[in-house]
Amino acid sequence: MLLLFLVSSYWTIRCQKESGTDSTSLLLAGLVLAGPSGCPQIIGDGLTLCGDTVVSLEVSREEFDRVAPWPGIPTADARRYTKELLFSRFRDDFDYVVFLINDRNAAAGGWSRSVSQDVTGLGFSPFDNGALYGTSGNLNAVIYLTTLGAITGGPFLHEIMHTWGNYVLPSESASHWGLSSAGGQLGGWDPDTFQDLGYTNGNGKNVYQASKGESYHYFGVNANGGNCMPYSPIELYLMGLIPSSEVPDIKVAVNPEPEDFPNGIFAADSIDTVTIDDIIADHGLRTPGPSSSQKHFRVLTVILTPTALTNEDWNLVLDDIREMEAPTKAGYCENFASATGYRATIQFGDLNNSLR
What we know:
This protein is α/β, with parallel strands linked by helices. It folds into 2 domains: 2-9 and 167-283, no CATH class; 16-165 and 291-354, no CATH class. Helices cover 18% and strands 24% of the residues. It has 8 helices and 18 strands. The chain has helices spanning 61-67, 75-89, 150-153, 156-161, 233-238, 276-283, 311-325, 336-339; strands spanning 12-17, 30-34, 41-44, 47-50, 54-58, 96-101, 109-114, 116-117, 127-128, 141-145, 195-200, 206-209, 250-254, 257-260, 265-268, 270-274, 296-305, 345-347. The strands form 4 sheets. Strands 1, 2, 3, 4, 5, 6, 7, 10, 17 and 18 form a 10-stranded mixed β-sheet that branches. Strands 11-12-15-14 form a 4-stranded antiparallel β-sheet, with no helix packed on it. It has a two-stranded antiparallel ribbon with strand order 8-9. The model is unreliable at 1-29 and 43-47 (pLDDT under 50).
């Protein structure tokens, strides 16, 4: 029954915490660093430099076919790409390494694999697996996205949010908001749309309806349609961008089951109310808070490809990056700054200054 909830989620999305050790040999055809000039320059040993915005990692067709398709780059390969290649050429200056797959036809999807975290109050203890990735605690996560257009098309903002959540609310969709009014990048409904329909189903459960926004008739349990959803108050709190006083009470469905879920209708034994004080009592206050939390993040973007990229490929990704890191959003959907309510920024470029 629970699988029916996932129908409304547009992407296949995962969040994984890093554990264990393993290694494999590095099979590398070349590394390309590309920027606005779009003019690669070979700098030796299979490495090619062209600008300072995005990197391409060219691997054999055999390796690409093994690591690129869903469920994505295996842990051992993600580690060796970062440790043996990327951080042998770049300094430890980045919060995220994002792997884009050179595929325009794949279904949009991705995962975020946590590498280190020193924030408390998130529902788990601080940890640091950076040594496995060639970093000394600066790297938050490695992110895998299935298609070239995933930075602006999604689920880029979603995967960034997995740095901090969800580990503070009960959910039938692990690490996501599930059937709750947390309503943001990790799923859940808009609290203003919730209604008790006033009857019970055949199992004696109360029936409710909600959506991700007033102009919609549905919501997702693990995503809400990509980058067009800003971060919700509980998400902004976990990111360290707003104080606890700005987080409203959150409704959580108890023992839910689907009724007409494509129209946001579900059943549950009851609806619990979780306050931010409840969350703090269980997990502690998010520390550091908004007065001293990190507000600027750096990304090393890597296009995994079996062939040399075309100018069209470069331009697609470069345009997406410019839009995502812009100080204001350009269209209907959100970029990072607008999704945070202009409380934080993200940077993809200036890679030349991080070269070793």
